[in-house]
Amino acid sequence: MRVFRTIAECRLWRQALDGDLGVVPTMGYLHDGHMSLVRAARGDNAHVAATIFVNPTQFGPNEDLARYPRDEERDLALLRGAGVDAVFAPSAAEMYPDGFSTCVPVEGLAARLEGASRPTHFRGVTTVVAKLLNITAPRRAYFGQKDAQQLAVIRRMVRDLDINTEVVAMPIVREPDGLAMSSRNVYLSPDERKAAHVLCLSLSLAERMYDEAERDATTIRDAMRALIAKQPLADIDYVSIADPGTLDELDVVDRDALVSLAVRFGTTRLIDNTLLRAP
Ligand code: PAF
User: Fold this and answer.
1) Residue 98: which pLDDT band, with cuts at 50, 70 and 90?
2) CA distances (Å), 245 to each of 67, 147, 187, 217, 275, in order?
3) Which residue, 8, 38, 133, 260, is the most exposed by fewest CB within 10 angstroms?
């Protein structure tokens, strides 16, 4: 497995490839969720690359950039074991040299939900993903459904900018108790980790209510909020039931709907979601 630190080396490798390249962009500290993306990419493409870059521009001033977990040696071993051909792991200076002054904001979609709490977040994500897709020019790029809004925003950017890459979404991978895998789960204290179970319980409640023919979105949101509020360590940021493409909040669940939430446990903010599919 080749490891590239510079854009020039990565481009040179890319240009010599014959056949489809699949890319898995990551911020490292890999878990089974990331590895499911790698496995899908391995199955679909002749060549697979992963990127490891803790992207500073998607962290707000009071967020966890400095303490974001990192373990590159372990990440590289996992990627090697999964049959990845190349890893692009640049420095911040390589990606954002002095004088860097361009960004790729996606209007509207990026301002909702996560964007309301983290106003500069998606601008950082779309800027770095645009750069990574330009550098690696993959036939397919793989992202997890766990970051459902990120996925919607990236899809919109790829469509609007005619980027010649298929965006492939992979299902959420969960811990045995249902907690969605996330690099940030390591921040949870043992009590917060137990309490975080309420996230998937509230999503299951939404699914059950929907299966039992409840279609009033406010009724479902209120029931989810009430369930989460019973957990003293949980502090709700938002509970949303929205159109999966536009992220417009729904009054009536009369089409496919994305149920998503963000909840704080101490200083750790977790997100999760499920899709309600119209019959
Ligand atoms: O989902 C992530 O890990 C990041 O937001 C991404 C897509 C790699 C961009 O930095």
Assistant:
1) very high
2) 33, 13, 31, 17, 12
3) 8
Q: Identify the CATH class of 183-273.
A: alpha beta
pTM for the complete prediction?
A: 0.96
Q: Average pLDDT over the chain, rounded to whole?
A: 97
Domains 2-170 and 183-273 share a fold: no
Over range 81-97, report the average pLDDT: 98
Instruction: Using most ligand atoms within 8 A of CB, pick from 23, 24, 27, 151 the residue to mutate for ligand 1.
Output: 27
Q: Which residues are catalytic?
A: 34
Domain coordinates in residue numbering, the chain: 2-170, 183-273
For the Cβ of 37 lying below 6 angstroms from any atom of ligand 1, the answer is no
Q: Cα of 279 to ligand 1 centre, how many Å? A: 32
The confidence band for 62, taking pLDDT boundaries of 50, 70 and 90, is confident
CATH 3.40.50.720 fits 2-170, yes or no: no
Burial class (CB in 10 A: 0-12, 13-18, 19+), 278: exposed
Pocket test for ligand 1, best of 57, 58, 64 (most atoms within 8 A of CB): 58
CA dist., res. 177 & res. 201, Å (int): 10
pLDDT tens, residue by residue, 137-186: 999 999 999 999 999 999 999 999 999 999 999 999 999 999 999 999 99
Contact 154, 126 (CB under 8 A): yes
